[in-house]
Amino acid sequence: MRIATRAVPIALVLLLAACSTPPAPPPRPAVTPPPAPKPVVPAPTSAIDWRDIPQTPGRWTYSRDASGTAAVFTETGGSADFILHCNLPQRTVTLSRPGTTGAVTLTTSYSPTTWASLPVSLVATDPFLDKIAFTRGRFTVESPGTTRLVLPAWAEPARVIEDCRG
Fold first, then answer.
1. What is the pLDDT, as a whole number, of residue 149?
2. How big is the chain by its Cα radius of gyration, in Å?
3. What is the rounded CA–CA span in Å between residue 70 and residue 52?
4. Do 38 and 126 form a contact (C-beta atoms < 8 A)?
5. Which residue among 52, 60, 92, 135 has its CA within the 20 to 30 Å range from the CA of 39?
6. Rounded CA gap, 115 and 142, in Å?
7. Secondary structure class of 101 (helix, strand, coil)
8. Spatial separation of the C-alpha atoms in residues 128 and 130, rounded to whole Å
9. Per-residue confidence (pLDDT) for residue 96, from 0 to 100
10. Is the separation of the CB atoms in 107 and 50 below 8 Å?
11. How far apart are CA 74 and CA 57, in angstroms?
């Protein structure tokens, strides 16, 4: 019986050892690939930047008469499209665009400025005239019902402004 009494504890130990094995780990969840990155779509642009619009073909001319000096921009083969005129006795610079009837916006590299209509006369010391003279490469003239002028910032307008300042 001794053998049987020894066999029982050994069997009991084996039985307990078999019961104490850890359970199998739970199955791993299926690996899903990360979502594909969304393509970057540029924001739609509502308008072309005025600095990227080609300049209006044409040229500035400078002239002097009894009342003062003028810078006239004329498109190739056309009539005057924009005029800066210095009235020397009054020390004013008049900006005009033939054919405009409503509000006019002039945009320089400094900022846009709007007037109710043209022609407009400015005292020769008006800071806006400096914006025309020192704009970076071009300025625009826009009014409803007319084509936008993209004018080169040549020396002629600056010369008229300086003539009026004396």
1. 94
2. 41
3. 28
4. no
5. 52
6. 11
7. coil
8. 5
9. 95
10. yes
11. 8
pLDDT < 70: residue spans in the chain = 1-23, 30-47
DSSP string, 15-44: HHHHHTSPPPPPPPPPPPPPPPPPPP-PPP
Q: In the chain, where are the structural domains located?
A: 53-165
| CA nearest to 164, candidates 87, 61, 65 | 87
Beta-carbon count within 10 A of 126 CB: 15
pTM of the model: 0.70
